[in-house]
């Protein structure tokens, strides 16, 4: 899938963006009846009901604009369809949800609109967004997306079991050995399930060691930053835990979730906050959340993940104008708490986070969230590189071999992985 998208993006580059008027010549107002096709990924009943309410109220306030929502089953489906629509130059949506890691490649290839002129024209107060989320939506100083479905990576655990065992989830990585052994000894089952299928879930362990998947060397060339003794040491440690049966890695999301909700493991680490409501509804115990254990650096940051709201650049200006008004409306504080309750995503607006009534309503619906919300100021964006997906594929492949197949020893596999990542990045420099 990711390789297909890379090829499609390369084709988009060949199209060029010739003929775009200078910003000071563009009229950003909607002056005629305009339909905006909106590609989204909201499929639950609560999500769909809220979406219809938002659209209905928006159209009532903006009589020239009609919104046509179109559902896609995943971000990958949206990304694939968006790239194909741009190449064919047909059926390009007016706006869409895409996931955060795609922003850099799409912005570099002219697929998505720079929103700065629209923000200036409509006088949007961007300071009300959570700063870490806002930073993750910027590429080369341009605001190319609005925060909308932001999540992070947390540890889920069976709060009833931990209370019974009289233990707490570790705040520091150095305390993980004792925690894992105690839970495993008491239950005979893994203390933690770990998602291997997407680097988004295990990468924070390494980024909190300042071992970044992609960094820049003294020559300004992209190289992997995973080639550190700390990164290798923690990989050896997790392999040891795996061999002892203290933790268990999964290739797919459904099996990982089922192991936790079915009681075959006492937790998941690290996994998206957006799945909280789903996990709790399928569990017969109280599901609790914790931020990632702090590494030896003292960092336990989460990386900004989830969906963003973008406007494709390859469209009529009237459609882009109307789409921006819809994006601004959709992401306003007016709907933030209702949207977060329906989807389990984080509030993105400071005005909501600072409103006691709003947050009381949010916490009533999401009682496990308070320990995570207080860390929103420490969220950081992933490295913005067009090579992020491809290097991430390499990372996932080797972590699968190390932790799931366990056919290679850690040191050999790690050395092979570093070499393959650097060879790939050298070809892109």
List the keywords.
429 residues; disordered N terminus; three-stranded antiparallel β-sheet; 19 helices; alpha/beta; single chain; 15% strand
Descriptive notes:
Helix 1 (2-15) runs parallel beside helix 3 and helix 2 (45-61) packs antiparallel against helix 14 (333-343). Strand 1, helix 2 (45-61) and strand 2 form a beta-alpha-beta unit. The protein is 47% helix and 15% strand. The protein is of the alpha/beta class and 429 residues long. The protein has 19 helices and 14 strands.
Q: Topology of this protein?
A:
Layout: H1 2-15, E1 34-40, H2 45-61, E2 65-71, H3 75-88, E3 95-99, H4 103-108, H5 116-122, H6 131-136, E4 138-139, E5 142-143, E6 146-151, E7 153-158, H7 159-165, H8 176-187, E8 192-195, H9 199-207, E9 215-216, E10 222-223, H10 229-244, E11 247-250, H11 253-261, E12 267-272, H12 276-281, E13 287-290, E14 305-310, H13 317-330, H14 333-343, H15 350-353, H16 356-365, H17 370-373, H18 388-405, H19 410-428
Parallel strand pairs: 1-2, 1-3, 8-11
Antiparallel strand pairs: 3-14, 4-5, 6-14, 7-12, 7-13, 9-10
Helix pairs in contact: 1-3, 2-14, 14-16, 18-19
């Amino acid at each position: 899938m990711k390789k297909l998208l890379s090829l499609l993006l390369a084709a988009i580059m060949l199209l060029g963006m010739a003929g775009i008027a200078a910003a000071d010549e563009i009229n950003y107002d909607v002056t005629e009846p305009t339909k905006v096709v909106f590609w989204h990924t909201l499929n639950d009943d609560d999500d769909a009901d809220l979406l219809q309410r938002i659209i209905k109220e928006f159209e009532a306030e903006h009589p020239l604009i009609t919104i046509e929502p179109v559902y896609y089953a995943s971000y990958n489906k949206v990304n694939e369809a968006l790239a194909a629509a741009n190449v064919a130059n047909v059926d390009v949506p007016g706006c869409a949800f895409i996931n955060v890691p795609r922003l850099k490649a799409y912005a570099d290839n002219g697929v998505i609109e720079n929103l700065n002129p629209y923000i200036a024209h409509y006088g949007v107060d961007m300071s009300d967004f959570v700063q870490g989320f806002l930073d993750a939506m910027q590429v080369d100083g341009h605001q190319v997306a609005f925060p909308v479905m932001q999540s992070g990576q947390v540890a889920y655990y069976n709060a009833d079991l931990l209370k019974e065992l009289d233990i707490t989830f570790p705040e520091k990585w150095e305390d993980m050995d004792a925690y894992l052994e105690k839970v495993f000894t008491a239950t005979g089952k893994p203390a933690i399930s770990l998602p291997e299928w997407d680097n988004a879930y295990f990468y924070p362990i390494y980024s909190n060691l300042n071992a970044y998947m992609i960094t820049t060397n003294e020559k300004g060339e992209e190289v992997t930053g995973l080639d550190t003794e700390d990164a290798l040491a923690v990989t050896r440690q997790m392999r040891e835990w795996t061999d002892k049966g203290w933790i268990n890695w999964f290739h797919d999301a459904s099996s990982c979730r089922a192991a936790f909700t079915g009681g075959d493991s006492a937790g998941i680490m690290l996994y998206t906050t957006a799945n909280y409501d789903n996990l709790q509804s399928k569990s017969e115990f109280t599901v609790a959340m914790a931020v990632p254990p702090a590494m030896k650096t003292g960092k336990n940051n989460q990386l900004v993940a989830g969906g963003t709201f973008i406007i494709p650049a390859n469209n009529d200006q009237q459609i882009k104008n109307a789409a921006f008004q819809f994006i601004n409306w959709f992401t306003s504080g007016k709907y933030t708490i209702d949207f977060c309750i329906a989807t389990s995503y984080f509030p993105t607006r400071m005005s909501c986070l600072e409103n006691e009534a709003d947050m009381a309503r949010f916490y009533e619906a999401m009682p496990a969230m308070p320990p995570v919300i207080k860390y929103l100021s420490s969220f950081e964006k992933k490295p913005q590189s067009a090579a992020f997906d491809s290097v991430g594929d390499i990372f996932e492949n080797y972590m699968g071999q190390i932790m799931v197949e366990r056919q290679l020893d850690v040191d050999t596999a790690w050395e092979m992985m570093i070499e393959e990542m650097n060879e790939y990045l050298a070809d892109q420099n």
